[in-house]
Amino acid sequence: KAGVTQTPRYLIKTRGQQVTLSCSPISGHRSVSWYQQTPGQGLQFLFEYFSETQRNKGNFPGRFSGRQFSNSRSEMNVSTLELGDSALYLCASGGSGAIREETQYFGPGTRLLVL
Amino acid sequence: TQLLEQSPQFLSIQEGENLTVYCNSSSVFSSLQWYRQEPGEGPVLLVTVVTGGEVKKLKRLTFQFGDARKDSSLHITAAQPGDTGLYLCAGHPLNDYKLSFGAGTTVTVRA
User: Fold this and answer.
1) What is the side-by-side order of every strand in the sheet holding A74-78?
2) pLDDT for A82-103, tens place per residue?
3) Cβ of A105 and B45 within 8 Å?
4) Which of B7, B89, B99 to mutate to test the interface with A (most CBs of A within 10 A)?
5) Is A57 helix (H, G, I), strand (E, B) or coil?
6) Cα-to-chain-centroid distance, residue B42
7) Over the stretch A39-64, which tens digit does the pLDDT of each residue have?
């Protein structure tokens, strides 16, 4: 079974631009979560989608948004990029649909650099 | 403030030595997971511990969940260079849907 895939793997943007990241979960999984990982803050939860609906949300500004499609693929968008948005963005999928999904399978991440 | 505190932050040891990583919280968790992350990759799940006092073994890795389900430890016996990586603990506190991660412990095993 193919794992979680994320595209692109690397991205360079400038301040003020916007960016869209994509995540394809493991086949059959319906839950997709997004995380931001930085050296200073570690892994921080952004949001979770299940069956095209945002189910949980972390403490990030409204510039961070996402959506999930009917095939469970998910996109994350960051508008008006700031230098501090430079990070590894990780997507994780879960299969059972339980609200408090215990097992998360992570993709390789998208490394975003904002100049 | 991290909900899960990991210690130490960095650990560098010689091949063949043992090491222990700790994950502590003042909150109770329904379960805790341990992940290992290598550079340029996403975290990979090693184990999930669910029951207070539970001990799980994965080859040379031993994971323990505290009796009160507030803490966990990871012990590696006879570490090898392939054990090098960032070790992360994570869990759902009771009544919280969000998965919280510790800051991680960077383990380097020198050949």
Assistant:
1) A5-7, A19-24, A74-78, A64-68
2) 999 999 999 999 865 555 555 7
3) yes
4) B99
5) strand
6) 15
7) 888 899 999 998 899 988 999 999 99
